[in-house]
Amino acid sequence: MSLVPFVERESATGIVRDQLDLIHAAFGTVPAMFRAVANSPAALTSMWAAFGAFGGGALGSALSEQIAVAVANRNSCEYCLAAHTALGRKAGVSPAALRAAQTGDSDDPRTAALLGFALKLVEERGQVTPADVQALRDEGWSDEHIVEVIGQVALNLFTNYINIALAVPVDFPTVGLRQADGASAR
């Protein structure tokens, strides 16, 4: 049970109703996370705007979902792992690639480098080195991509923390957490 009440779209007013209407139009429903976040109009507006901005970003939806899956798995956020796995499949990412992304892996070395960088950002709380950034450039990633992945990690940390801290129930098909060695987490 969520630790905050869910705001229902039908009873919401003002900016919250406007945002929930947009979310409903995008998903065909309003997922539980958004109904929890709707307790703060500022947080809801910020989150939805960030999703929209990154949706048209340089990394593209498939890679963005792989980043989200990696971050969610690292933070043991079952809600975000389930949601972004479903969204990743919708974006054309194979189940095997999404499973690999959970631990920062990919058959593509460029993607693996970017996912590894995203996980290092999480693990080291942003304390990456100039060599870490250069390694991405050496793989062909531009400064735009590098800044965008940092922004996406930050957004995913926000959503992970919302769902974990507020015990938002998962309303997407569940996905098992993974440890880096391939064993199931927990």
From TrEMBL:
Record-level Gene Ontology MF annotations: peroxiredoxin activity
Pfam families in the cross-refs: CMD
Annotated Carboxymuconolactone decarboxylase-like domain residues: 50-123
InterPro entries: AhpD-like (IPR029032), AhpD_core (IPR004675), CMD-like (IPR003779), Uncharacterised_peroxidase-rel (IPR010195)
Keyword annotations: Oxidoreductase, Peroxidase
PANTHER family: CMD DOMAIN-CONTAINING PROTEIN, SI:CH211-175M2.5
Annotated protein name in UniProt: Peroxidase-related enzyme
